[in-house]
Fold this protein.
Amino acid sequence: MRKILMMSIAVLLCQFLNAQVIVQERDSLAVAKADSLVRAKAMLKAAEKANALAIDLAVARAKIIAQYKADSLAAIEKPKWVQKNRASVDISEVTFVNWNSGGSNSISALLGLNSSLNYKYKNFYWGNKGKIRYGVHKQENQKLRKTEDIIEFDSNMGYRKDSLTNWFFSAQFNFKTQFTNGYKYPDRDRAISKFLAPGYMFVGGGAEYGKDMEKFSFYFSPLTVKTTFVLDQALADKGAFGVEPAVFDEEGNMIRRGQTSRNEIGILVTNYFETGIFENINMSSKASLYTDYLNSFGNIDVDWLVNFDFKVNQYVKASLGSHLKYDDDIKILVPTDEKDKYVENGAKVQWKQILGIGVALNF
């Protein structure tokens, strides 16, 4: 009996231990399944977030592409001419009445007209600008004097291969001259410049960069023809503005008249930049650099105009301008001890500064 009892106790003990092992294995398996479920849920949420982000990016990309196509189609389907005009009058005046410090009464006026006519179609553009300025000054006990005289016309044509680039194959034309005779005051008997004396014309082709040509452009032309006109024969005979002067013999008799034009072939670089500095202050800069291949290559002609526009209201404005020029073909005349006799003193930097307040009208 004792042996049978011991064997029964051993069997019961073994069954109890096996039951404990089975319970532990079941608990471990349940924990593992729970951990796997948590990880699966976390991975599912991460995948859902990634999918949502990918969808958002795809939608944003589709909107950008759609807007780009819409802008491109709008630009293609609506070719048109755009014209802008601006007329201005600047006036300055000084009057003295019983002024014990002395002074002279004076008045100045400057008339200006700027016009632009631009055309765009697909990847082709054609821009045209015209400028006219004429100013006079009257001081007490003096005759009327000219202070400003400009006629200028620009035409710029370009084509690019697609809308993704801002580089254009470009051609440019520029012409400038003046209205009336110019004098070296107080001498009014001898005009030093006249209408089309001089006149300057630039024609060339090259490459131009600009996203918005009306605000910024950079132009480089390796082949530009510059023609200087002096259609007044008296000035041409003197060799004014770089043309070939008349030829005389030893007795002073004219053998050959002076040429009325001069042609040069060279490199032209131009830059135009316009931006708003403050809310009612705009600045514009136009620079031109030219050098001739055949005559004194590397000797650069400079023409740089900077202008600040100050807007008071819709009609009243003020302007401050600076114009710097250098042309090696234009020699400065210096008076001598003899009356009405001048000698050439070489080329010098020319500079003009203008400050005016007046009214302007856009139409």
Notes: The helical segments are 2-77, 233-237. The chain has two helices and 18 strands. The mean pLDDT is 85.
